Amino acid sequence: xxxxxxxxxxxxxxxxxxxxxxxxxxxxxxxxxxxxxxxxxxxxxxxxxxxxxxxxxxxxxxxxxxxxxxxxxxxxxxxxxxxxxxxxxxxxxxxxxxxxxxxxxxxxxxxxxxxxxxxxxxxxxxxxxxxxxxxxxxxxxxxxxxxxxxxxxxxxxxxxxxxxxxxxxxxxxxxxxxxxxxxxxxxxxxxxxxxxxxxxxxxx
Length: 204
Ligand SMILES: [Zn+2]
Hints:
CATH architecture of the domain at 73-197: Distorted Sandwich
Strand content: 25-35%
Bound molecules: zinc ion
Largest sheet: 10 strands, antiparallel
């Protein structure tokens, strides 16, 4: 095997680029001690646009807590089993309400209960999907949570939402045998177990 001329050229260019980068990081900051009022004025005037750019993007807040915010929540299908396998594709947990305390989900107590965003982000509304039915995702720079089988939405596509905001109502749309919330957590495109994000904690 051998490198083509193009590959060798790219390698040389990459090494030159790396050299420049190292040289720049090793150089002392230019003329810091000579900064005066006029320089401060320049940097101050540049600040508003930078902070505005940050404000326009949702913070990469970690999902946390139970999207149903109800202590009577039970898991009707766990992570990585049944229709949640393989976890890398369908990973999530199914949540419903046990309103009579017998340890099992209760359809009457589960229909149309509010679903709350577990972190800040932008709403992605996808109605009538299969198998997720009325599907909703909340995305920020690092995390995405997904809420499936919704009966209806409380947000519109592209809307910024904050943690704790009602985003929809539990239903049984799509591939579903009864009212429940299918809840997923993704971290930088990798599916994660929602229980690692306190998906049953309802102390708020
Ligand atoms: Zn599910």
